[in-house]
Predict the structure.
Amino acid sequence: MKNFIRKFYYGDIPEEKAGGGSYQTINDTANWPLWEVFIRSKQGLDHKHAGSLHAADAQMAIENARDVYTRRMEGVSIWVVESKYITASNPEEAGELYEPAVDKIYRHPTFYQLPDEVNHM
Amino acid sequence: MPVQDFEQLFQKKIDNEVKIEPKDWMPDAYRKTNIRQISQHAHSEIVGMLPEGNWISRAPSLKRKAILIAKVQDEAGHGLYLYSAAETLGMSREEMINDLHSGKAKYSSIFNYPTLTWADMGAVGWLVDGAAILNQVMLCRTSYGPYARAMVRICKEESFHQRQGFETLLVLSRGTDEQKAMCQDAINRWWWPSLMMFGPKDSESTNSDQSMKWKIKRKTNDELRQQFIDMAAEQVKVLGMTLPDEKLKWNAERKHYDFGEIDWNEFWNVVKGNGPCNKQRLEARRKAHEEGQWVREAAMAFAEKRRSKQKAA
């Protein structure tokens, strides 16, 4: 048996130890879509991505987000958007995409050397 | 670019502590390992609600009942954070749930032990959540971004779980002789299974540990277990109770507690499905899922109806 023991930890049982039952799983006909949740933690701050969840519609997504992400008063406002409507940049194109900003260090205040008397500017 | 180059770039990112995000290139094995680990972790949170749910209607006071409900609700939330993190790797929620229900996927074997008395709620909070927290604190720095972020959120919420557990035991430890005995009995039953939560001994590891190289994990089983034992051995003194291990003794040279041998046969037996409650836990999950099906369908139908009404208006 020793040969099969791999170093693993809480919540990580290796595949060869996983079982397989005869239980016939039900086919869910109701697959609720995935929603991304954004929370404003207090007035004056931006909404920030908190996570995602499944819900049948937008209103239910907000109610679920309330229960999942604001159990300890983490928010005063919630946005939800169905995940499929989010367009994301491609990480493989990150080089080209952000290249134009790389050599423009004069856009930073620290680029300019000023005498001490006015350096708080 | 050949795959080796991608792998080198990937490992370089890991070595430089750059987090891996869902759309980044990653080796298949990294994706698979994360899906397995995160989904098992999620299942553990969900099944972990069952032994505690057993005591919600039997809690000794309204205060304890409210606390227990809040804790169980947290576990549900933690399961959801983790399922979402696993979904970013391309496995659907439905697939994960089906794997749990068919017995293909596993969850932490600690939840296959029964909660026999009210003191068990204290011991579970102190020992089981305590052991889980050590793992979870480590996992806040895991290399896969969504997993790490879920862990940060979970850790913030989890410390209340351990504190309320210890406090529950503290109250019992200052109570009647019967309550004291109940407290000690719960500690006796939960101590060894809690130590098993950290997994097999490092020396029994035959494979080189890819998970450490990929920084999915950052501490070995034995390191975490020792850390846990050192903490618990001191904390138990506050309760005026003892841990059920005759060999437990401070080793001044190692600056750690020495401890006795863990019964690994028991551990593997429970993993394989022969623990005291394996069958009961899975049956409870399946029943809940099957009986909830009409609710899920009704919610979809209602959402559809609302959509068509809005269109008409």
